[in-house]
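**Protein of interest**
===
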Amino acid sequence: VVVTHETLGNLFHSHRETLYRPAIEATGRRHLRAGHAWSFFFDASWQPQLWLLDGHCVHIVSEEVRRDPELLADAVRRHRFDFLEVTPSLFAQMAGSGLLEGDDCPLAVVGVGGEAVPVAQWRRLASLRATEAFNLYGPTESTVDALVARVGDSDRPLVGRPVAGTRAYVLDERLQPVPPGVTGELYPAGGGLARGYLGAPALTAERFVADPFGAPGSRLYRTGDLARWTSDGRIDFLGRADD
């Protein structure tokens, strides 16, 4: 997947407001410590690296630590991370390995992504007293994150609203918008879209389709994910169309 400096810049400017600012306000410090616990083979590894552009410190954990929930929970405390993004399942394992003390978490902001969040875990994240939690959704083709949801804003798992510079549509098989509550396929568009697939023009044309709602030449990405709009303008992820 070919992404550009421009699309990464779009992600940075969005996350600076959505993720960095809450952490700065929570800690009262301008310079923060972000943990990097993703494999560099995974697109989400870009997200913590972008903290460097805002003047923060990024601590890259070793593969041994990244794969061990107990060691990773210990690293969060020992290195005093302010932010960490992991999968929901890994966060649950870390919570059971000493990361949480009751409703207290040492992280100012936690992000979860890469998997659907179970209802019980969503409510657990929402109950954390001094920690803001966010659910981050996005295919690589939309430069890591296309949608973000603040966990405390809902009593059930949602993928939320588009990141800044990105649009999202829920469409039927004729590429027509469906009303709130009706299931359709999720199509991100806007400043986060990748150029396409390197050396695969036919696949690029199949997955990146003309945007009938945007300016001439703009495109949508066909995710293959099922979703629906809520009545208040957020998106509910429902699974894969090919499952």
